[in-house]
Amino acid sequence: MPGTVLLLAAAPVGKGCLVDAASVLPVLAAVSPAVLSGTDTANVVELADPLEPQAVLTRLRAAAAAPGPLTVFVTGQLLLDRRQHLPHLALARTTTATVRYTGFPWHWIREELRLRQAGTTTVVLDLHADTETWQWLRTHPLDCGRNIEVYGRVAPPPSRRTVGAPTYMKAVATILRSGHRPAVSELHQQVLARLGDEVYADVVLGVPGVGAAHVGAPGVAVPVPGGAAPRPPHRPERPRAQVPDGLNDADRPREREAVRPADDDPHAYITAAVQSGRHSDADALAAEHEQAAVRAHGAGSEQALHWAEVRADLAMFAGDPVRSCRTWLAVATARLNAGQTPDTLTVEAAVDRAHHQWGQIRDVAPARELGLALAELRGRVPGRREGALENIKQQLSQLQTQS
C-alpha cells in the first residue's frame, strides 16, 4: 500500500520571522518519495509558506484520510494566541497580534490525526518558539494525539535580529538522501549525533506512540500519558511590577500598565519584560519569586529550582551565556544534592543546557573556569548523547593554549 507524505514549512514574512523554514524544502524534495515515506511508493504533498489556515487544514485532512502510512514533516515557528494562550504554527501572514486568526492552531493537528490507526503515523518536527511560547512549554504538553510517533526538536528563540536555521530537518533530509530510511527512532538519534552540542539547548522530542511531550525542564521532553497538562509550578503572591529607572512617580503607574499583560501570571509579566528588552527587570522579578520560594519551601525545592531555571533562561535571552551556564550548573548540582539520580531527566536537562551555554562563551577565563566545573559534572551526569565529556575535554585543551 502506498504511503503519504506531507511536507509543511511555514514562517511569517518580515521581522516576526524566527526561522528560515522554507529553506528546508529543496533538501527534502531531493529525497525520493519512497524513502521519505518508508514505503515502496508514496504520494508527496508540499506546502511552502502557506497563507491561510484553512488551506493547511484541507491538505492535512486529506493526508490523514489516506490509507497506508502517513509521515508529516513540519518546519516552522510556534506562537501563542493572546486570548486563549494556545500554540499555533505561524503562517506567512501571522503576527503576534493576529495569530488567533492567521496562524494554524496546533490542536487541529491532534484532531485530524486522532482517528489514525496506531503505528501508521509519524510526525517529524523542527520548530522554533518565541519567548512566550518557550515559557509556556514548561507547563504544557505539545500534543499531536494518541498513537502518534513524534520526533524532532523545539528550539528557543534565536538571538535578536537573527533568523534561525532548520538544522534538525536539514540533517534528516541529508541522511535520507543516501537512499536508506532507518527506523525513525534511529534516524532521530543519527540526527542528534550529527548536530552535536548545537541541540543541547533544545526541547528534544522523541516520543514513540505517545504523541504528547511536556518539558520537565528546557532541553528534555517528558511523555504525558493521555496528553494531560501537568500541574503548574508554585507561584508566590502577585509581584510588584518592575519599571525602568529615570521615571517620575506619575510616569511609573503608566509604565506598569503599558507592559502589564492581561492576567496576573508572573511568567506573563516576565515574558512582557523580555519582549520589550527589559532583561534586568525580568531577572529581578524572577529573583523575587525564587527568594520567596526558598523561604517558603527550601532552596532544593521544586518551586525554588523552577525559578532558578527561569533565571537561567532569562540570562540566555539577555545574551549572557556565562550567567546562564553558571545557573544551570547550580540547578543540576542542587538536584543531585536533593537526591535526584544522574539519569533523572531534569538533571540531564540542566547539564545539557549548561553545556550548550558554555559553548557560547567567548571569554577565555570564564570558559576555563566553568568548563572545569562542567567536566566534573559531566563525569557524574554523562547524559544520553555519546561523547559529551570528550567534547568538553577537547575544548578545555584548546582553551589552555589560549592566552
CATH class of the largest domain: Alpha Beta
SSE string, helices as H and strands as E:
EHHEHEEHEHEHEEHHEEEHHHHHHHH
What structural category do the secondary elements indicate?
Answer: alpha/beta
Radius of gyration: 22 Å
The CATH architecture name of the largest domain reads 3-Layer(aba) Sandwich
**Shape annotation:** globular
Helix proportion range? 40-55%
Count of DSSP E strands?
Answer: 11
Unreliable sequence segments: 214-239, 241-263
CATH topology of the largest domain: Rossmann fold
Structure report:
The chain is of the alpha/beta class. It has 2 domains: 3-227, 3-Layer(aba) Sandwich (Rossmann fold); 251-400, Serine Threonine Protein Phosphatase 5, Tetratricopeptide repeat. It is built from 16 helices and 11 strands. The strands form 2 sheets. Strands 1, 2, 3, 4, 5, 6, 8 and 9 form an 8-stranded mixed sheet that branches. Helix 11 packs antiparallel against helix 12 (302-317) and helix 14 packs antiparallel against helix 15. It is globular, with a radius of gyration of 22 Å. The chain starts with a strand and ends with a helix. Mean pLDDT is 83; it is low at 214-239 and 241-263.
Per-chain topology:
Layout: E1 3-9, H1 25-29, H2 33-37, E2 42-48, H3 53-65, E3 70-80, E4 87-89, H4 99-102, E5 104-105, H5 106-113, E6 121-129, H6 131-136, E7 141-143, E8 149-155, H7 167-176, H8 184-195, E9 203-207, E10 212-217, E11 220-223, H9 251-259, H10 266-275, H11 279-297, H12 302-317, H13 321-337, H14 345-358, H15 364-380, H16 388-400
Parallel strand pairs: 1-2, 1-3, 3-6, 6-8
Antiparallel strand pairs: 3-4, 4-5, 7-10, 8-9, 10-11
